[in-house]
Amino acid sequence: MSKQVSAESPSPAPPIEPSAVDPRLRRRVIGAAFAGNFVEWFDYASYGYLAVTIAAAFFPATDPATGLLATFGVFAVSFIVRPLGGIVWGRFGDRLGRKQALSLSILIMSVSTFAIALLPTYHQVGYLAPVLLLLVRLVQGFSAAGEYAGAAAFLAEYAPARRRGLQTSVVPASTAAGLLFGSLLITVLTTVLSHEQMASWGWRLPFLLALPLGFIGWYIRNRLEDTPLFQNLEQTKHVAASPVKETLLHNRKAIVLAFAATLLNAVGFYTILSYMPTYLSEQVGLDQARSFLATTIALVTYIGFIFGAAALSDRFGRKRVLIAGALLFIVGAVPLFAVLDTATFAAIVVVQVLLGAFLTLNDGTLACYLTECFPTRVRYTGFAFSFNTANALFGGTAPFIATLLISTTGSNLAPAFYLTVAAVVTLVAMLASPETAGKPLT
Question: Which segments cross the bilayer (predicted)?
Fold first, then answer.
């Protein structure tokens, strides 16, 4: 921790106390963070949930399994730019302010997602279609790299210490809400439209919504001031000259711990909340409408569990809650996935709810934990780099690896074993981590 403190030397004047912030302003801050993050992950959810349909539109020359792998491959490749995006957005946010970075990232994300709705298919332009899809996904990945970290830092730096976990949990809650809206919308579309209509034009509808939703989020964010802690850095001229260099020189241990803590979140989030409808329809044999319905029900409970986990982290500490989440996955992932193969629809929903509850112990706590790992001068950079690197290597690849593991091993339990390994890595890191809850962010 001494290295992290030295990264802020010479110490700035005492910052504006977040607890003194007007409650009305804090509500606007929470609303702005929620709106932007909601839009970003609704966009991502739409692609993940429509993977089978997109595979048919952009990779029809292959068999269904190979086409699905190709679609998830494009999903994974878009994450390659996430570490670079984390560095760029982190430097932007630590040098020019959290608000400026967040306002720009949501515009880029919305425009690139809207562009997917306008892309020609393989039948229209041949192999140019998947190339264009990949390019748009790369832009999406770059913009998304600044969203989660920036929104978490924005909320944490406005929050009183005793409720920092609960307030920052709006970030993962808004992420889940974006997934929920995507799941609801696609459930309706697959129920109302025929298979031919979905394959022809119905899959484009969710992406068309990205532009108006994005401009609403941008408008809300653009009307706010930056955080009290960042304003203090500007006023006292203590803004980091080189946030990336400062992060790598003085916060190496924090980067390793943050990366390992994010590992379970990355694998768990994209396996349980994004890939699961595809798993249920392709591996378990559930029809698409009921697959989306099961995920939708699980997401409703998931959002409530997130706030509960965050409240627990404010009371008992981030470390204990993160350890508990890792242990539950180590013990329960394989047995719960085993139930899915032979379960009724009701049992499938129960399993998804339980897996979601396990994940919220990590997801509902992680955003706040990562903001507390890094000092204010480099908080955006440190958070964004470690979080996005873990997601690039293990999050975006999770649906692809799960599909590949099932294909090569012949076992539907392969994704559960992958989750278990990720949980073990996170557990080891958390045992080595100091407690961060309740401490001043500076």
Answer: 44-62, 68-89, 101-122, 134-156, 168-189, 201-220, 254-272, 292-312, 321-340, 346-370, 382-407, 413-432
3-state secondary structure 232-250: HHHHCCCCCCCHHHHHHHH
Residue 4, domain member (yes or no): no
For the four alpha carbons of 219, 223, 224 and 230, in that order, the dihedral sign comes to positive
Longest alpha-carbon distance in the chain: 65
CA dihedral 108, 114, 115, 119 (to 10 degrees): 160
Query: What number of other Cβ atoms are within 10 A of residue 287's Cβ?
Result: 11
Q: From CA 417, how far away is CA 423, in angstroms rounded?
A: 10
Cα separation, 229 vs 154, in Å, equals 10
CATH code: domain of residue 157: 1.20.1250.20
| Residue 11 maps to a domain | no
| Residue span of the structural domain in which 194 resides | 22-431
14 lies in some domain: no
> Is residue 275 within 8 Å of residue 398, measured between CB atoms?
yes
Find tokens 């294909």 and name the residue.
407
pLDDT in tens, the chain (442 residues): 444 443 444 444 454 555 566 778 888 888 888 887 888 778 777 877 787 788 788 887 666 667 777 777 776 777 888 899 999 999 999 999 999 998 898 889 889 889 999 999 988 998 899 889 888 888 888 888 888 899 999 999 999 888 999 999 999 999 889 888 887 888 888 889 998 899 899 999 999 988 898 888 888 888 888 888 999 898 988 999 899 999 999 999 999 999 999 999 999 988 888 788 788 888 888 887 788 788 888 889 999 999 999 999 999 999 999 999 999 999 999 999 999 877 789 999 999 999 999 999 999 999 999 999 999 999 999 999 999 999 989 987 888 888 889 989 989 899 999 999 999 999 999 999 999 998 888 6
Give CA separation, 327 vs 103, 312, 364, 366, in Å.
38, 16, 16, 15
User: Residue 15: inside a domain, yes or no?
Assistant: no
For tokens 């630590």, the residue is 94
CB 278 within 8 A of CB 52: yes
Tell me the residue type at 212. Answer: P
How many domains would you assign to the chain?
1
Alpha-carbon gap, residue 398 to 421, rounded angstroms: 13
